[in-house]
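Both lines are retained for reference:
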Amino acid sequence: MSSCPSGFSPNLLTDLANIWCWSFMRNAIEAGTLTAIVAGVTGYFVVLRRSAFTAHAFSEIGFAGAAWAVLSGIPPLVGLLVGSNLGGLGIALLGRRAINRDTQIGIVLAFSLGLGLLFISLYKGYATETYSILFGEILAVSPDQVTETLVASTLILGGMGVIYRPLLFSSLDEDVAEAKGMPMLALGIAFMAIVACAVSFSVQVTGVLLVFSLMVTPGATAQYLASKPSRAIATSVIIALGATWLGLFLSFYTPYPVSFFITAEVFVFYVLVRLVYTRFRWEKISAGSLLRPPVDRSG
């Protein structure tokens, strides 16, 4: 490992080769790639179903589970998965329709944060694991964790493939889907479980406090760039991948954390897309008003 260079050079290919030379960066790139794909796919439906607050709540609920896991001496990821899935089940059972879930999410979220605070206050060890839960620590991912992420990503994407059509239909028109007799409760529980798992693995990249950057922002941006669901999902994945790869590249050559770069990149790109979209829409409306014939008000 000592032969691996770390200095920045004007040659991009050399810089990429330098990054790939380090095993911890290879692990980070592999885990980040898998996480970005999962977050891009699930994040699109989170935005489409107006459940962005849900994704944020899962991370906070998972924090309580992870804090309990650290206190109990078991891997934090196990606690994240258990906590976020139990929280997702509670939210799905308390509010069957997405539009009515804000109150239920707030109740579960407040209770979970209280539990997390209690577990952290009882923990007497070093704060390193707590910090990684809050802000992510992708550069510390081990090969075993990469394998776990690969298995989990395959299962999550497989689950999304199974419920894709009914989930898309119910997300676009919940009233019609319910009127046609679709199992809304079962569908909601399945989707909540998938999102809970996706959030748990996204936390290792961005942390609990910044999980919005991968779970919501790429999906929200994609809706302005593509109208068809399949294209919007692909766009969301591309944005998440680009932000993750660029964030890892910049973090390697600077003293700043990966999660900062990822959040900054997706935020700036979202703002730019919104500005361009708003201007294009305004110009289109203005052109339409100019082409419209004048109304005769002379009576």
Summary: DSSP finds 13 helices and no strands in the chain. Residues 258-291 form the longest helix (34 residues). The radius of gyration is 22 Å. The domain at 12-210 is CATH 1.10.3470.10 (ABC transporter involved in vitamin B12 uptake, BtuC).
